[in-house]
Amino acid sequence: MTQDLSVTLLAEAGPESEPLVSFAWIMAVALLGPILSYATGKRIPAVVVLIAFGVLIGPHGLELASEAGGVHLVKEMGLGLLFLLAGFEINPNILRGREGKQGLVTWLICMVSSFIGAYAVLGFTRPTTAVVLAIAFTSTAVGTLLPIMKEQRMLDKPVGNSLMVHGAIGEIAPIIAMATLLSTRATWLTAAVLLAFFAVAFLVAAVPKTVHFFAPWMRRAMIHGAGSTNQTIVRMVMLLLGVLMAVAAVFELDVVLGAFAAGVILRQMVPEKFRTPLEQRLDVVGYGLLIPVFFVCSGMAIDPEAVKNNPWFLVLLIPLIYITRGVPILLRERFANTGSQIRGWRESFQLSFYAATALPIIVAVTDVAVTSKLLTAENASILVAAGSVTVLLFPLIGSLVKPAEDYDEEDPKERQEALEKEQA
């Protein structure tokens, strides 16, 4: 009945009204997602519920919604703001230190092991497809994890700090690898394009200081309009995001590179005392509208029939993602001096599961791979489905494997048991 009604609505809708009908359904499930997540005691993250509803209402499900019209643009802006917020959270000083350098070494180990694992799964054929899978496997969905980490108050703890390091590398490195390894351009030309992009990003970062130097009154105008209906600061952030995403698109790079760069630049532009209020405003814009649309549309891209026809591939991919991304992090944290504050097996296990959580980069990589005909649409659906499962499963496991100091101080017996297990 519902499907018949939706088909009738979409059939009778003209080209202008069809996107609005789709948007209405998307926002309906965007509202329902966190409510159902709360009903499960937050054991199932709202992100996973949104993706599942996306599968249900999308073109491969009840056909209630599609990305036609402006919906696709809203989805792209949601992806962009997700990466901007992730870049805004990352302290560049940490990446310059020992932990950042060791995190890059760990990522390279993950990349090699992921390629070997993917190549083996493919029967040691199609090496280019193995590269696609390897890039997807080595990503970390730090933007997706941020709400979970904030909710569990982990950002100021050793696991949270280390996750931001691995998350930053797990977003930047796969994007650069995607640009260089999956590009149809010559390697030297791709390198030149990347350098040109970073040069433009540097110039964009210098614009506010230049404007302030030549026109000091502009700063006063921005501050005056920040709290009014003009919302000048938020508009400036959206302009920064739009410009760098557009530059990345013009250079035929993935837009997430521009979005992440926008977040890093924004952090350097905003004084520390103003970062929290600004982040709160961006959370309203992002998590209130744009980001939920991205997650629902990501679910709409999954073809359940493709997963049904190759269930073994999905079952194989999920542990493979952890083995090739999580296990190297676990072993390096335990047996190498990475410069982190991680102590004990519990924190190492927890970090490994959080860092192996992947989705947005998987969506980006599969889009590029399908367009370049390096991956079939069916396999792309399975890969996105596997990423969605990691968002559900890995943070859940990570929250269960909590360090001893996170146990309630009022229960000394439980804390003592945890300490004994950690020391064993």
Automatic annotation (TrEMBL):
The gene is kefC. Keywords: Antiport, Ion transport, Membrane, Transmembrane, Transmembrane helix, Transport. It is found in: Membrane. Belongs to the monovalent cation:proton antiporter 2 (CPA2) transporter (TC 2.A.37) family. One of its GO terms (molecular function) is antiporter activity. Signal peptide: none annotated. The chain crosses the membrane at residues 20-39, 46-65, 77-95, 104-124, 130-149, 188-215, 236-264, 284-302, 314-331, 351-370, 382-401. Gene3D superfamilies: 1.20.1530.20. InterPro entries: Cation/H_exchanger_TM, Na+/solute_symporter_sf. Residues 28-396 form the Cation/H+ exchanger transmembrane domain. Residues 412-424 have a biased composition (Basic and acidic residues). It is a multi-pass membrane protein. Residues 405-424 are annotated as: Disordered. GO terms for cellular component: membrane. This is Glutathione-regulated potassium-efflux system protein KefC. One of its GO terms (biological process) is proton transmembrane transport.
